[in-house]
């Protein structure tokens, strides 16, 4: 190898064969080395195929971002409030058990507050734009595979995050119809139905999710809360008991369990569960109010 090459960075004339410029250390061209062809040429891909491949990679990356976004865990609002305030609990005389507990007035901020209701979140313009882009990709994917339950489920989750549950519901319903043995599809459908106020459908789907995952704590607890919200406290009690057995270290089921016990007139058992909750969470935000409620509930007993 002989001759000289000119550095493309600084213009210095350097003897051929050196890998870098002696002045600026920039890479020098190697006249005797043939440049490698682009990878798409070595694969014999046409320009159209290269474009399709690039689009596919872009869709995959954005879809991955969407999956991470939709499946990132959020802290549930697991606070269940007592069924009645201290001032509204009357001492039972010769009354039936059901009359011993006042019906909660939700306008006063009382009553159970199930975690199965998806509360709308304020979305920033950037987050909304990103979710809309993901939604469009899932919509496009469904044009090619309209009966793909996972894409339908992901599209439903994206629509739910966009605060469009009425559009998410049919996507989840279709996913459940295509893959009835997947518990997460039933759970997502139940949550969206609860958001829209479809109590019966929500309860039915939570029951199916619990049937498919009988030993899953979250599924049992959410089913119990759905039953409690629907006023079916008799059915909620065994589900709360199963949830407590599956996760004995979690305090939240004890409080929700106490709400249903109180509604059914089982005040001593309700007091026990309220106290157990406070033993496990002594620094709960409204611990002082709950202690006053427990005291009033206990003193009202004959």
Can you describe what's shown?
The chain is 56% helix and 2% strand. It is built from twelve helices and two strands, in the order ββαααααααααααα. It has helices spanning 39-42, 47-71, 125-144, 149-161, 165-178, 183-195, 199-212, 217-229, 233-246, 252-263, 267-280, 287-299; strands at residues 4-6, 13-15. Strands 1-2 form a two-stranded antiparallel sheet. The longest helix has 25 residues, at 47-71. The protein is elongated. The N and C termini lie far apart (108 Å).
The count of DSSP E runs of length 2 or more, i.e. the number of strands, is 2
Shape label: elongated
Largest sheet: 2 strands, antiparallel
Task: List the secondary-structure elements in sequence, H or E.
Answer: EEHHHHHHHHHHHH
N→C terminal distance:
108 Å
Rg calculated over all Cα atoms: 31 Å
| Averaged pLDDT | 77
- Estimate what percentage of residues fall within beta strands: under 5%
Helix content: 55-70%
The number of helical runs is 12
Q: Numbering strands along the chain, what is their spatial order in the largest sheet?
A: 1-2
Q: What are the low-pLDDT stretches, counting only 5+ consecutive residues below 50?
A: 71-118
* Helix-strand category: mainly alpha
TL;DR?
With 302 residues, this protein is mainly alpha-helical.
Can you give keywords for this protein?
mainly alpha; elongated; 302 residues; 12 helices; two-stranded antiparallel sheet
List the helices and strands and how they pair.
Blueprint: E1 4-6, E2 13-15, H1 39-42, H2 47-71, H3 125-144, H4 149-161, H5 165-178, H6 183-195, H7 199-212, H8 217-229, H9 233-246, H10 252-263, H11 267-280, H12 287-299
Antiparallel strand pairs: 1-2
Helix pairs in contact: 2-3, 3-4, 4-5, 5-6, 6-7, 7-8, 8-9, 9-10, 10-11, 11-12
